[in-house]
Amino acid sequence: MSLFTAAGLALAVVARAAEPQNGTGHSLEDYLKRVGYLPIALKKGEQDKLLAQGALAGKKRLFVVDTGTVRTALDEGAARGLKSLGELGVTLEDGFFGKLSDPTIVLMDKLTLGSA
Length: 116
What we know:
The protein is an alpha+beta fold. The chain has a domain at about 1-40. Helix content is about 25%, strand content about 20%. The chain is built from 4 helices and 6 strands. Strands 1, 2, 3 and 6 form a 4-stranded antiparallel sheet that branches. A two-stranded antiparallel ribbon has the order 4-5.
């Protein structure tokens, strides 16, 4: 079985499992709403980048939505006032990234996308 076929079968199983059991909507959007996700408005920016309104540490911000990155990147202005690993004198253990010790990594206490 090819990886592509296996991935297709896995998606079919997930889609089947996601089907509502009580006769409510059958769309992915309906399912995501039932498990606590809400839609957010996106708009196109320069070079067709997707943009979303949000808030970080209580301040309204405009975020670029990049589905091809594995980390959230902040410019210096947005990161100002957030605690860094260096300031806190700590390292983080992450199941995906492993041990994070870069002293410039900042911790985001509260990031909200959509109506913030």
